[in-house]
Amino acid sequence: MHNPDSTNPMNTENFAATRAEQSDSVENISATKAEISQPASDAEHVQQSPLIRLRIDLAYNGMNFNGWAVQPKLRTVQGEIEKVLRRILHDRTAQEQPTIRLTVAGRTDAGVHASHQVCHLDVTQAMLDGCVGHMHVDAVKALELRLSRMVPNDIAIHRVSIAPEGFDARFSALERTYVYRIADAQSTYDPRQLSYVWHIDDELDIDAMNKAAALTIGLHDFGSFATPNPGGTTIREVKTAYWRRVPMRPLIDDPMGEQYRTPAIESGLLCFTIVADAFARNMVRSLVNGCVQVGRGKRSVDWFAQKMQVPLREGSTGPIAPEGLTLEHVAYPPNDQLASRAEAIRAVRTLD
């Protein structure tokens, strides 16, 4: 029997075209199904993953650091810690990750120390889980252990923990405590103090210095004792400020029959303790400079009072040597007040 399609070229072409269209349709349907079933890309997954805020409590000897904040080609505390964190938290399965960036309670200057500093960073759960490896601990503890072992020996990691909701290391802080240590003519010199005590040859009048320090307590504009910050303010509230001399050790009988004072590491030191909600740049070291000038008898308490009343920055009230200064403590409110504290402290202060 004659098959009309076998001799009709048009029918053959139509049949081929129809088969091609059907094939394209099948491919399109398959592609659509593949797109629907294909999981989100690693980058999209990272962006959608909730971030976990971690709190890090730490200490450091600032002698060999150019301050806390990252600076190009300079060794800084933040730079060293972030470098280690990038190695520990790198998620090889993700194309993109949150930037490892620390937010700190107080940005200390070059040469300034911290016995209790606080910072935070945000990570994903996948980044945290990668820290565990063969350790039989939870992910946060694993990060703490790895970080402690890998940072330089002039940094100490005290604790890593999951931060409460609303926590911000900088803006949630309730108060910060700094101590400045001076070895004057009455102090027993101890070479171990070299990196964290400022040495002077004069004998200082602690009573006069305390009169000056008392003038700083309360809400004031510390413009005379702080480096101007464009767009910011030098208004701060000081809660506590005082000088004290660390008692000397009792006299000890020497086997040779003589008596001497044992060189305890802080024997006789003059220590300035100041507590405030926050500090302007170079504020603590500049206040110490003013007090020391009063203690040396070069300036009067009235001069210091005038500087407090007229917030005008000039050379005689610049910052003193950094090595004597240590950030001793950062305090935070109860967890349910963290967010409201952060919101309030972000507002620009006024004297009203």
Automatic annotation (TrEMBL):
Location of the Pseudouridine synthase I TruA alpha/beta domain: 212-333
InterPro entries for this protein: PsdUridine_synth_cat_dom_sf, PsdUridine_synth_TruA, PsdUridine_synth_TruA_a/b_dom, PsdUridine_synth_TruA_C, TruA/RsuA/RluB/E/F_N
Gene Ontology biological process terms, A to Z: tRNA pseudouridine synthesis
E.C. numbers: 5.4.99.12
Record-linked Gene3D superfamilies: Pseudouridine synthase I, catalytic domain, C-terminal subdomain, Pseudouridine synthase I, catalytic domain, N-terminal subdomain
Keywords: Isomerase, tRNA processing
GO molecular function terms noted in the UniProt entry: RNA binding; tRNA pseudouridine(38-40) synthase activity
Reactions this protein catalyses: uridine(38/39/40) in tRNA = pseudouridine(38/39/40) in tRNA
Active site per UniProt: D109
The keyword tRNA processing appears for this protein: yes
Matching HAMAP family: TruA
Family in the record: Belongs to the tRNA pseudouridine synthase TruA family.
PANTHER family reported for this sequence: PSEUDOURIDYLATE SYNTHASE, TRNA PSEUDOURIDINE SYNTHASE-LIKE 1
Official protein name in the record: tRNA pseudouridine synthase A
Organism encoding this protein: Bifidobacterium dolichotidis
